[in-house]
């Protein structure tokens, strides 16, 4: 848990989170600004963080979202190796 949101980590390094709201869910990435996003799913204008907004009752972009999660995992692993 990080800021009351379920968070995915490698060791103690967080790389993704899920935040639920009334009208949508955000799947966020702590280093999202550095991730490849060919489908254009990521939103946000922060220096590092980006998120994908999923709306209730609408299909999730599963292949593209899965690719972002994989990329975020690989990214944090490489950051931890350096």
Q: Could you name the key traits of this structure?
A:
alpha+beta
Molecular structure report:
By secondary structure, this protein is α+β, with helices and mostly antiparallel strands. It is 24% helix and 29% strand. Strands 1-2-3-4 form a four-stranded antiparallel β-sheet, with helices on one face. A hairpin with a 3-residue loop joins strand 2 and strand 3. It is globular and about 40 Å long. The termini are far apart.
Short summary of the structure?
With 82 residues, the chain is of the alpha+beta class. The protein contains one helix and four strands. A four-stranded antiparallel beta sheet has the order 1-2-3-4, with helices on one face.
* Binned strand content: 25-35%
- Lateral arrangement of strands in the main beta sheet: 1-2-3-4
Question: What is the terminal-to-terminal distance?
Answer: 25 Å
Mean pLDDT: 94
Order of helices and strands: EEEEH
Radius of gyration: 12 Å
* Helix/sheet category: alpha+beta
Helical stretch count?
A: 1
**Helix amount:** 10-25%
- Please tally the β strands and state the result: 4
Main β sheet profile: 4 strands, antiparallel
Q: Which stretches of 5+ consecutive residues score pLDDT under 50?
A: none
Shape annotation: globular
Topology (elements, then pairings):
Layout: E1 7-10, E2 13-20, E3 24-29, E4 50-55, H1 62-81
Antiparallel strand pairs: 1-2, 2-3, 3-4
């Amino acid at each position: 848990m990080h800021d009351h949101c379920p968070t995915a980590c490698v060791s103690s390094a967080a790389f993704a989170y899920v935040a639920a709201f009334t009208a949508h869910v955000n799947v966020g990435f702590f280093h999202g600004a550095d991730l490849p996003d060919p489908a254009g799913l990521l939103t946000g204008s922060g220096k590092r963080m980006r998120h994908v907004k999923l709306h209730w009752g609408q299909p999730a972009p599963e292949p593209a979202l899965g690719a972002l999660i994989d990329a975020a995992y690989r990214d944090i692993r490489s950051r931890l190796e350096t």
